[in-house]
Amino acid sequence: LLGLNIGDLNPDEIESISILKDNAATAVYGSKGAYGVILITTKKGKVGKAAFNYTTSFNWSSPTRFPEALDAYTYALAINERSVNDGGNPTYSQQQLDAIKNQTDPYVYANTDWYDAVIKKSALLQIHSLSVSGGNEGIRYFINGSYTDQKGVIDANAYKRYTLISNLSIRLAKNLLLDLQTSFRSGKTFSQGGPTVQTAPFNAVLQASPISPVYNKNGSYYGAFESSNPLANIVPEGGQTKETPNYFNGNASFVYNTPFLKGLTLKAAFNLERGYYYKNIYRSPVPVFVPDANSASGYRQTGGGTSPNLNELWGQSNTTNIDVSAVYNKTMGQHQLDVLVLGTQNKMTANYNTLFRDGLIRGIQSINAGSPVNQTMSGAPSQAGRAAFLGRVNYQYANKYYAEFSMRADGSTKFPENNRWGYFPAVSAGWRISRENFIANNSKSINDLKIRVSAGTTGDDNISAFTYYYNYNPATSGSGGSSAYIFGNTFAPSLSLANSTLPNINITWAESFMVNLGLDFSLWNGKLGGSFDIYQKDLKNMLRGKAQNIPGSFGIGAPILNFAKEQYSGFEFELTHSNHVGKDFSYNLRGTFTYNKGRVIDYGEDPATLDYLKAEGYSPFKTTVYKAAGFFQTQEEILAWVNQDGLGNTSLKPGDVKYVDLNKDGKIDAKDQLSYNNMVFPPMGFGLNTGATYKNFNVDIFFQGSAGNKLLISPPQLTKEYYDNRWTPETPNTKYPRLSTKLNNNPVLFPSTLNLYDGAYVRLRNLQIGYTISPDVLKRIGLRTFKVYFSGTNLLTFSKYKEFDPEVPNVTGAQSGGFYPTQKTIGFGIQLGF
Amino acid sequence: MQQQFEIIKTRILNILFATVVVISFTACKKVLDLKPLDSVTDLTLWSNQEMVVSYSGNFYAQLTSGFTTDWLVGSITDDAAVPNSSSGARTYSNPTFTSSNSPANSLWTNRYRYIRRANEFLEKIDAVPGDASLNKRLKAEIRFMRAYYYFDLVQYFGGVPLIDHAQAETEDIFLPQNTKAECYTFIANELSAAAADLPSAYPSTDIGRVTKQAALALKCRTELYNKDWAKAAATAQAIITMGSNSLLSSYDQVFALTNKNNAEILLSVQHNTRFDERGHSFDRSAFSPWYGGKGNNCPTQNLVDDYEMKSTGLPITNALSGYDATKPYVGRDPRFYSTVLYDSALYKNRRMEMFTGGGDVTSGGPNGILSNTITTTGYYLKKFTDEGFNAFGDVNARSSQNWILLRYAEVLLNYAEAQNEIAGPDASVYSAVNSIRTRATMPALPTGLSQSEMRDAIRHERRIELAFEDHRYWDVKRWNLATTLFSTATNPLKKVTITRNATTGVKTYAYSNITGDTRVFLDKHYLFPLPQTEIVKPGNKMIQNTGW
Fold it and tell me: What percent helix, strand, coil does chain B show, rounded to 5?
């Protein structure tokens, strides 16, 4: 199934997974495989009587790390200090501070741990899967149904999935086999607030004031005075987002072994996929109150009074795939030949509609319960297509020499008609040295030794569609008054130019050329094995605009051209060791190390380009930061320093960050930035997998880590870490600047070397202990297999940066820690066959 | 028999397979010949006049409406303040930005983006099949738009490169700045040409489009800013002579929601109540927090003090004016009552409570008022606000006041200012200013003013008449008074603190400087920096504005 999301698959449907990385191996998959291919083979039935398999697992997950909050009293002191630092008056009076400190009035001045109030200790994930397979000469079957139920760490988040697949292999005639695969996958996601769902509650917790109580004395939600109540914002009665993607997929694949030419197999596969997507976003703000002696009820509503609103989105997609291929196999003595010719095409049409109404009658979650006054709707159709041809010849001699050549032609709708097709060749060769007599006859310790070499090109059409001519989109929605207008007091839909770059009729495929050299070995009957791979990948004719060559006054972005070059290189090293000690104990070790490096070779930059803007020679993911020189300690120091606020430093105070004027032009601006590679992707990765089996027990331990990257951290000011390490006149040598809301110290505006931290970490990614009951025992109670296991993920983490999880989301800009942290899970599972 | 059957079956299968292969492979071409389904190409657009008319709306949508940001430009002048210290207004009034993060940087990109689109429009419109007179009118409209975009750029950045055609990549596209005077001349000439082809009125379905008078009024403003007094006076006179526009009899009616696009309006940015169309949130921003607003654009005591006494026409500092310090809000210029919400003013059927402890200036209370929405001056804004708007109701409800870009009163004041510079305070200058004062039911200016006294009188009149209409900021800059007037070091912003005696109900008024809203305006702030992203481009030929 091309292009399927791995997450959509039930692991029990999968027969095998292999990862193809070099270009010769991915040639069959074309441009879709430009970044590597994960090849998943789903299970098929086996001849025999019906065999049942039931697997289930239960896992409880909880966040790994999260920044520690301040207690209410310290928080109040911090707020006062910040307010005074900003030139204002203290926010809390001594009387209020005392009330907070002594908790004399907890329904006004509380000491709330918002993390505990909002985030659950743990959330359960359970998976049940039942499959049956079997068959005879004429028909074989594999049928699987599964159910997944995942609770979120907040109540409003949940995920459910149902899948049903059936794989039938039917022998229609002596030479003709039909593989019929039908699947239905239905998901249901419940969340708060759409795509930011996961981040939102964590961010809210990070920003909430511990002085605010969660509830009022009468049980209603407290409406935190100058901020909102993070709990009231996420409780399910406040409304949820429900997403239900449903996919129905039918795949008929005919395999015909021609009788007229032995070894020739013709294959035609037809795939239809119909997707239905429905999203329902319901918002019903929960009323929040504060105590108010003047009110008859004793409380005053401060928020959440607005009426509910509902947003519904429907989408459907229709995809057809046709694959036609011919395979010819011929073995003559030691010679073995494989020839493949393949044609494939894919077409997708889709459309969506949305509806919105507000003013709903509270309690009825239906568009009809809403008011037409502010109703909106929108929608659009779309289509996409792809086609490709492939020819491949594979030859091997005596399992000793291997050679393969392939040629691929890809067509993409993203390019103009004359430049639509790209042609991509690939070659590979292998030599199993261990089969040569001089080794086979002389060494018993070498079981396998093979060297591989491959080189190949694939194409990349990773740009937006239809950029090669001017396109005008309908601008029916004013969305803040930006694109359409009103004439004669009537709103008039308009058109708006969609192109952000000057259309270029000459664009065509970008190319990726990759050379891979590999060595596989196995010594002393597997006691030591491993592989070593080294690669270089050259991206050529990449589609890019020369932004620096076009002034803003040109009025449109630089045209996309086929010219840019990037180069990636790296190596992978793997060592394995497996051994038996006696007949009951066996173990294996597998260690891997990878190193990857990416560099921009050519973005068409002028040699005069300033370094902070330069991409050539740097990683394509470089980040620039200002250079900090610690904090100002005295007013004299501020006045002596370079003009860094544009106002002669009149807006600065001791405790503010001092920035270095790198280009010595007497002011601090974007030009004073340093470039850093390796901000996003760690260049080094390593793993250590240990497995051991003793009688019916098995243990698997997997440590994983990465190193060599920096994290850009914007530590939130009102947390324990920041407060304990902030600048004050008494603690002038410390980690963070003084508490302030002024822009000078804002790491989002001025990311500096102060905000860079080592991103290296090692974590116990996976631990599993299993017990398999021996078949003899099982037979007596009528079972085939039975295994039970306990597992845990991310149980231990070691990292230099300790305030929050080192696996920060891949977003640009500084991280404050208000994101959904990686989960730690513990659980157990059962695999049962009968 | 069975064997023969198998052979036939095999043959059928062979043919079937061959057919499938052929069909599939020939379909490949079709599968790639796709067009987007929800947009049109430029070929389609420029051959369809109806679509071109639709497209013209996209250029109008780029007109700047003061109502789409939550503070008015008046709030970065000595006229007003915003209470929230993290408001965007503070970025301008206490400008610690550099050329890399200047708030005007996005304007550069956006204006030039639409200048290019306008250039393309102007190059293609003549060939559009259909009514040629409509093409001519559309061309003039877009020509106006391009001139307007340039005027905006010059306001912020001074001289900018003038580009009058859709450039090809092969041209010399890195251009030096034209001088400010060259830009103003270009804009004025363009507006002349546009005015020649624009109608003075539209059928009701096209209200909101640019008229001849609007083009002339922007031209007049351009000439005034260029200190080209003779031309400015002549252009203003041309609009006055046309007679298509006039002063309404009531100042309030000019801004009334029920009276959009009235005879005094030459051009306004059109809005409606729809949140997904062109509704805005001005009332939510400007309302006193008592009514659910953010309390933005609070008039300062400085502005309030500038309203004269109605009976005498004299400033309150004049002992003969009739001003009573114990009743500061009695007998002032009627435009004061239209512009400012002061203590005890009747608004939404309630008396405003601006005294210490009063509902409009106290946090918490029944409406849960946040402290960063409470006025820092002792006043809230009344002008433009819709008393009927309910900020506590539907969150998606929007305000629909049109934003006035050009109105007749400005033309009269432009005339007076330009004519006074040429000829001194002649009768036509008096007549222009007095027609505005008369409409406001204020006494006429005293006769016998010197040229410089008249200049001051006109500047005063602009401040009062055009308050909060985005003029003050640019006027003070072009009068070269900004370093004095817009710095709190030289012109502190003042507020009123009103104390009410709990037993007698008598109020006392104390005046002091506002703290925590430091304003800085250095010489370099007369112009915004050119975006650093432009200056650092290797081909750049522009020179960064002085001081940046």
Answer: 45, 10, 45
**Confidence check: pLDDT of A78 > 60:** yes
Looking from the CA of A17 toward its CB, the CA atoms found within 13 Å total 8
**Owner of token pair 């009528």:** A782
Average pLDDT over residues A499-507: 92
Using an 8 Å Cβ cutoff, are B118 and B145 in contact?
Answer: yes
User: For the packed helices B427-439 and B408-423, what is the interaxial angle rounded to 10 degrees?
Assistant: 150
Residue B387 host element (H or E): none
- For an interface test with B, which of A175, A487, A667 has the most B Cβ atoms less than 10 Å from its Cβ? A487
| Partner B contacted by A322 (CB < 8 A) | yes
Q: How deeply is A315 buried, as exposed, middle or buried, from its count of CB atoms within 10 A (0-12, 13-18, 19+)?
A: middle
Residue A118 CB neighbours (<10 A): 24
Residue type, A675: S
Q: Are strands A288-291 and A221-222 parallel, antiparallel or unpaired?
A: parallel
CA angle, residues A153, A156, A160, in degrees to nearest 5: 85
Read off the pLDDT of residues B91-128 as tens digits, 9 standing for 90 and up. Answer: 899 888 889 889 999 999 999 999 999 999 999 999 99
What is the spatial distance between Cα A69 and Cα A230, in angstroms, rounded to a whole number?
14
Q: How many helices (H) and strands (E) does chain A have?
A: 10, 38
Question: A283 and A359 in contact (C-beta within 8 Å)?
Answer: no
**CA dist., res. A127 & res. A9, Å (int):** 12
Spatial separation of the C-alpha atoms in residues A297 and A459, rounded to whole Å: 70
State whether A478 and B34 contact (CB < 8 Å): no
Roughly what angle, to the nearest 10 degrees, separates helices B229-242 and B408-423? 140
Q: Cα distance from B517 to chain A (closest Cα, Å)?
A: 10
Are B34 and A383 inside 8 Å of each other by CB? yes
A84–chain B Cβ distance below 8 A for any pair: no
Q: How far is CA B279 from the centre of its chain?
A: 15
Contact A393, A334 (CB under 8 A): no
Q: For chain B, give the mean pLDDT.
A: 93
Beta-carbon separation of A647 and B21 below 8 A = no
Alpha carbon distance A365, A373 (integer Å): 17
Q: Does A302 touch chain B (CB under 8 A)?
A: yes
Count of CB atoms situated within 10 Å of the CB of B174: 18
Which residue intervals of B281-374 are DSSP H helices? 282-286, 301-305, 334-339
- Given a contact cutoff of 8 angstroms between Cβ atoms, the answer to whether B226 and B183 are in contact is no
Chain A segment 368-387 residues within 8 A of B by beta carbon are: 371, 373-374, 376, 380-387
Compare all CA atoms of chain B with the CA of A356 and give the residue at the minimum distance.
Answer: B276
Residue of B6, B13, B370, B530 to mutate, interface with A, max A Cβ within 10 Å: B13
Tokens at residue A534, please?
């080294």
Sign of the alpha-carbon torsion through A215, A218, A219, A222: negative
As a whole number of angstroms, the distance between CA A502 and CA A547 comes to 11
A551 interaction partners in chain B (CB closer than 8 Å): 161, 173-175, 534, 537, 539-540
Residue found by looking up tokens 């016998």 in the block: B448
pLDDT tens-place string over residues A668-716: 888 899 998 877 788 999 999 999 999 889 999 999 999 998 888 888 8
List the single residue in A292, A550, A559 with the smallest CB-CB distance to B173: A550
Asked if the Cβ–Cβ distance from B38 to A473 is below 8 Å, we say: yes
Q: Is A682 exposed, middle or buried (0-12, 13-18, 19+ CB in 10 A)?
A: buried
What is residue A547's predicted lDDT score, i.e. its pLDDT?
A: 86
Residue A292 in tokens = 């108010």
Instruction: Mark yes or no for CB contact A470/B54 under 8 Å.
Output: no
Within 10 Å of residue A773's Cβ, how many Cβ atoms? 14
Per DSSP, helices labelled H in A209-279 are: 230-234
Is residue B20 exposed (0-12), middle (13-18) or buried (19+ Cβ within 10 Å)? Answer: middle
